[in-house]
Amino acid sequence: MPTYSPGEIADKTGFSLDTLRYYERIGLLDDIARTPGGRRIFDDDDIAWLGILRCLRDTGMPIAQMRRYADLTRDERTVRERVELLEEHDREIGRRLAELAAQREHIRGKIRYYRSLDTSGEGD
């Protein structure tokens, strides 16, 4: 399996080096391999895990919930709890999407209103 330096992982995942170190410090990343000189080495499994973390973060999951999820993934007997945590997050995403859709409609209403006022002809 190929290995990657922290810089390569930062490029591949979009996470900054500071974020990678932070995630390791708080337990979102564990068992990161190291060279004999102590430098971190990442592999494809780490890239896949970071992809999950990126998805959770980008969809607004709080760090505390991300840590809970990471803890749950370390125990094969916690599948039901993982499902429950992800279902809860999915419901929150749905709630936020509905809220955004309503806000978007409000903005579109304003656009229609301002276009109706535009008499300069530039709106055509």
Automatic annotation (TrEMBL):
Residues 3-72 form the HTH merR-type domain. Keywords: DNA-binding. One of its GO terms (molecular function) is DNA binding. It comes from the Bacteria. PANTHER family: HTH-TYPE TRANSCRIPTIONAL REGULATOR ADHR, REDOX-CYCLING DRUG-SENSING TRANSCRIPTIONAL ACTIVATOR SOXR. This is MerR family transcriptional regulator. It comes from Actinoplanes nipponensis.
